[in-house]
Amino acid sequence: MEKVTIKDVAREAGVSISTVSNALNDVDVLNPETKSHVLKVAKQLNYVPNLNGKLLRNGKTKMLGFFTTSVAGPYFYKLVESMSRECDRLGYGLNVFVTKDKQVIMSNILGRRVDGVIIYEELRIDEEEIAAMVKDKIKAVFLDRPLKNETMGSVIFNSFESAYEATKYLISLGHKKIAYISGVDEMYDSVQRKEGYLAALRQYQLPTNEEYIIQGYFEEESTYNAIKSLVHLSPEKMPDAFLAGNDLSAIGCIQALKSNGYEVPLDISVMGFDDIDIAQYFSPPLTTVRNQIARQGILSVNHLVRMIQKKEQGEMMKLPGELIVRGTTQVKIDRY
After folding, report:
1. What tens digit of pLDDT does each residue of 244-274 get?
2. Is 266 exposed, middle or buried (0-12, 13-18, 19+ CB in 10 A)?
3. Are 87 and 301 in contact (CB under 8 A)?
4. Which residues contact 246 (CB under 8 A, 6 or more apart)?
5. What is the pLDDT of residues 182-191, one digit of tens each?
6. Spatial separation of the C-alpha atoms in residues 80 and 112, rounded to whole Å
7. Which of 295, 297, 304, 313 is nearest to 62 (CA)?
8. Is the model more confident about 60 or about 246?
9. How confident is the model at residue 236 (pLDDT cuts 50, 70, 90)?
10. With contact defined as beta carbons under 8 Å apart, do 193 and 273 qualify?
11. Model confidence at 51, in pLDDT bands (50, 70, 90)?
12. Which terminal Cβ of the chain has fewer Cβ within 10 Å, N or C?
């Protein structure tokens, strides 16, 4: 995917580079027919102007871009806050682009509206788009997507190992019927946490039950509704523990269990992921895996700036989780 330049437009239109520049910048020195012809050719060639070039001679904006599908919820609040503070410390601004429109995303990235980009995995930038970014030497850091080359790096959580250890912890409490509340099937973290959960069950020779893998989409309400649909099971078939893909899912799970007469952790243990701010204040306080969300934001900005400054090449950084035991888990009490 070759990047179309202003020279390409001029050649195709049969005019000078200055004529193309005047047409694109709406300078009132051209006759309408010439301007219309140049704009038509530029559109046909999918020309993306370097908007920063109009503002700064060196082409630097001193801005970074964070591209995501959402900024809702405690994870994104902490992530964006930490990125913003690190940008400020390093003398950069942060633009946040919230969109699922690939054309908008790639236009902003290849148009160099920012000096470098941080991309959340859910946007699902495909291999062809990554190749175009590599060809254009775009500096990028991916969150929750393992990727490493000369101009691109990533900062991910060690979700497999964390989920494996969390499941082992529940097993150590005597739980044998452990359910997993998954997030979004295509997302790296969700897949890795599910695989870590299954690996622990296999190691301890505990059966895997498809009915015990519940879709919660990393959302409190979706999980609440999913668990409400599960409680039709007889008490003997109900899970005795839940490992949720994030803390919001764990909270939704606990609320649903409580509304159906179950006590947490007396009847059923529940664990979350992330250790969001509300986890320690929830009733009962939530047992969870602490992910270094703020650290992820700081590292992603720092790594990106160092790539922009040509001080380092792309790296893949994996952040370990930490088991935080609170009040939603306890040793299993056999009642049946």
Report:
1. 999 999 999 999 999 999 999 999 999 999 9
2. exposed
3. yes
4. 75, 183, 218, 272, 273, 274, 276
5. 998 888 999 9
6. 21
7. 304
8. 246
9. confident
10. yes
11. low
12. C
Tell me the percentage of the chain whose pLDDT exceeds 70. Answer: 95
Q: How far apart are CA 259 and CA 254, in angstroms?
A: 9
Tokens, residue 201:
């069950």
Report the share of the chain in percent with pLDDT over 90. Answer: 68
**287-290: strand order across its sheet:** 213-215, 178-182, 241-244, 269-274, 287-290, 322-324
CB neighbour burial string for 91-123, b if at least 16 within 10 angstroms, e if fewer: ebebeebeeeeeeebbebbbebbbbbbbbbbbb
Q: Tokens for 335, please give them.
A: 């009642």
